[in-house]
Design goal:
391 residues; 21 helices; Rossmann fold; alpha/beta
Length: 391
């Protein structure tokens, strides 16, 4: 197969430009090469042999945040992310080389199979003040990381048992935010589900996918196929929309449907009771949830089960917050500019909580809140629901 035929789907782009106003990198730069249409044209030029594979070309593709806002708006349904990932894989271009050795090792350890050991090491690293060794990591790591004491199975705690689900824990959530996982398990148990955390599950592969590491993605896909092969699961639940988006697009697909926790629990919440909470919360919807994984559940409606809670939503055209996987570490200027824009409404109207369904966005936004001197507590929406559940 020639390179040109491998990229024949680039022709689907009719160059209408409807995606441009929705693209954060184009909006910031006003440079066509930093737009979806421009990037597709660059890939087309390269695949047809009209353009050399230069650093400039790969940088334009590498600057993309993979937020997929463009795909959602595209009338021709151009599979932009798939084309961009294929390009990165074909050309072995990845921006992770822009990271220092410590950051690269940390990401490798985080996505590897020894997360419990990494969790212990990270707690030591934070406790001893060694984190001053890496300013880049120090900015996004939480001040404290809890010990990971997750069990493999949890029984339903509801009077009526509804079924059995598997929980995908995600490497960053498991190490840096086990609170969200525990809260999700607690809610699922009270919705009537037995919950299993398959021991052999691996990283979803999102970081490697966007870095063009096709072989590693294939390995994770195979390992997760095996880990979640039990046909007794009603669903595979994800708590980080970045992982959920990747798992739900596995090729071949996982045999059990992959569902974001908010979509899954929505039908069961009316049977539960929640304590009122006199507080305010901004709800951030990650790009991977709104542009890829969501089945359309309105999380505001879920949170409305908590009476007295004042919920504030960002504009529907809210752009990427800049976290974008490892982009917040490799493309700091763009990441910080987009974060500043995202946090603007919170700065104008501070709230007690900032809720986000993706660990990467939560870490990035939390760092931004700190630098702006804002005290909102960053939580996953399920943590607030779990905290207020009447049991
Ligand atoms: S994925 Fe996001 S950043 Fe990349 S081209 Fe599309 S809209 Fe722009
Ligand atoms: S909206 Fe779709 S068809 Fe139109 S320029 Fe963007 S990618 Fe191409």
């Amino acid at each position: 197969m020639t390179i040109q035929s491998k990229f024949s789907d680039v022709d689907l782009c009719v160059k209408c430009g409807l995606c441009l106003p929705h693209c954060p990198t184009y909006t910031l730069s006003q440079n066509e090469n930093e737009s979806p249409r421009g990037r597709l044209a660059l890939i087309q030029g390269w695949s047809e042999g009209q353009l050399e594979l230069s650093d400039t070309l790969t940088q334009h593709i590498g600057n993309c945040l993979t937020c997929r806002a463009c795909e959602k708006m595209c009338p021709a349904q151009v599979p932009y992310a798939e084309i961009s990932n294929r390009f990165r894989s074909e050309t072995a271009t990845s921006s992770t080389h822009q990271l220092g050795l410590l950051e690269r090792s940390a990401i490798k350890a985080l996505t590897g199979p020894y997360r419990k050991a990494f969790n212990a090491l990270l707690r030591f690293y934070l406790k001893t003040g060694l984190n001053k060794c890496s300013l880049t990591l120090n900015e996004v790591l939480p001040g404290k990381v809890l010990a990971n004491q997750l069990k493999q199975t949890y029984p339903s705690l509801a009077p009526v048992k509804q079924g059995h689900v598997a929980l995908f824990t995600g490497c960053a959530s498991e190490v840096l935010d086990s609170k969200t996982i525990k809260d999700a398990i607690f809610l699922l148990q009270h919705c009537g589900f037995n919950v299993t955390l398959p021991k052999t599950q691996r990283c979803c592969g999102a970081i490697d996918l966007h870095a063009g590491n096709k072989k590693q993605v294939e390995l994770y896909t195979q390992q997760n196929h095996l880990a979640f092969s039990d046909n007794n699961y009603d669903a595979i639940i994800t708590v980080a929309s970045g992982c959920g988006a990747t798992l739900s697009e596995y090729d071949p697909p996982l045999t059990t449907q992959v569902i974001d926790i908010s979509d899954f629990i929505a039908p069961f919440l009316p049977a539960l009771s929640f304590k009122p909470l006199t507080a305010s919360a901004w709800l951030h919807t990650p790009c991977t949830l709104k542009n890829v994984q969501s089945k359309g559940t309105d999380i505001v409606e879920l949170l409305n089960n908590i009476s007295e809670l004042d919920i504030r939503s960002f504009n529907t055209d809210q752009m990427c917050c800049g976290a974008a996987g490892t982009q917040m570490l490799t493309h700091k200027k763009t990441a910080q500019t987009l974060r500043k824009q995202t946090l603007m409404p919170i700065k104008q109207r501070p709230a007690d909580y900032l809720l986000s369904s993706n660990i990467g966005c939560a870490l990035h936004l939390n760092a931004g809140l700190k630098s702006e001197g804002l005290n909102s507590q960053v939580l996953h929406p399920v943590s607030l629901l779990s905290q207020q559940l009447k049991v």
